[in-house]
Amino acid sequence: MSTNAVYSKRIAESAKVMDFAIIYENVLIGDNAIIGEHNVIGKVPTPTSAMCKVLDMKTLITTISPLCRLCSNVTVYSNVFIGENCLLGDNVSVFTDVKIGNNVILSRNVTVNSETIIGDNSRVMDGTHVTGRVKVGNNVFISTGVFMANDDTFGKEGFGSNTCGPIIEDYVSIGAGAILLPNIRIGMGSIVAAGSVVKKDVPDCTIVAGNPAKVIAPVPRMLDRQKN
Ligand SMILES: CC(C)(COP(=O)(O)OP(=O)(O)OC[C@H]1O[C@@H](n2cnc3c(N)ncnc32)[C@H](O)[C@@H]1OP(=O)(O)O)[C@@H](O)C(=O)NCCC(=O)NCCS
């Protein structure tokens, strides 16, 4: 994922900004991007001491790369990089310190927390929560209503070095309503069945299902998206 595009103007002339969008000074918007109605782009977080994480309050650059389409009511905080040709559906919220690759889809009502990376060509479907410190690889499919967690102490130790969300390798598919618990790795090309609760690492090219999720089979050839 390249983050070094050169911008001669803060908002490219060919970009479209729809009514009631707020774009802060720290934002770069690339050619032919569309910023939808009521978007808020480049927002600096407004924390209180009640929060676990101590936030860096510096105003850092947020980049919306060329050809991105941001639908209505999208909020993108400061220090976010969104690659080319991404689609962010209505009500998506991307918190601070996040990197998103090229050709990524975040469907309606997806929320992404801080220090998370989402790779190229990955898709996250409606109503899913991608928690903080998650790594999503390239060509990953995450279905609707998936929840992720990054802290087994429920915030008692703050947002420290033990806070770590799932690592989801390339070509993984996550079924609807799955729950992915902290500190796990889901191996390349694997499938998590709908409604599963994943507590342990999943090997490469394996289907897991149930609560707690257990291996049910290797990924059959027809479902192996790496070979398509
Ligand atoms: C994982 C999945 C692809 C497996 O499909 P499949 O290969 O046809 O599997 P089968 O239906 O033959 O089931 C194999 C075994 O796994 C179990 N199983 C399958 N899915 C399960 C699930 N979601 N939770 C618990 N167990 C499950 C079956 O009960 C069966 O167990 P048994 O052998 O004891 O009878 C499918 O069940 C699934 O969860 N798909 C997700 C769909 C989805 O969310 N898509 C998102 C895009 S909209």
Topology (SSEs and partners):
Layout: E1 16-17, E2 22-23, E3 27-29, E4 34-35, E5 40-43, E6 62-64, E7 69-70, E8 75-77, E9 80-82, E10 87-88, E11 93-94, E12 98-100, E13 105-106, E14 111-112, E15 117-118, E16 123-124, E17 129-130, E18 135-136, E19 141-142, E20 147-148, E21 167-168, E22 173-174, E23 179-180, E24 185-186, E25 191-192, E26 197-198, E27 206-209, E28 214-218
This protein binds coenzyme A.
Residues 143, 175-176, 191, 193-196, 207, 209-210, 216 line the site of coenzyme A.
In short:
It is built from no helices and 28 strands. By secondary structure, it is an all-beta fold. 42% of the residues are buried.
Beta strand count:
28
By CATH, the superfamily comes out as Hexapeptide repeat proteins
- Low-confidence stretches are none
Counting DSSP H or I runs of 4 or more residues, the number of helices is: 0
Give the distance, in angstroms, between the N- and C-terminal Cα atoms.
22 Å
Encode the helix/strand succession as letters: EEEEEEEEEEEEEEEEEEEEEEEEEEEE
Q: Looking at CATH, which topology would you report?
A: UDP N-Acetylglucosamine Acyltransferase, domain 1
Q: How confident overall, as mean pLDDT?
A: 92
Q: Decide which structural class fits the backbone.
A: mainly beta
CATH architectural type:
3 Solenoid
The global form is: globular
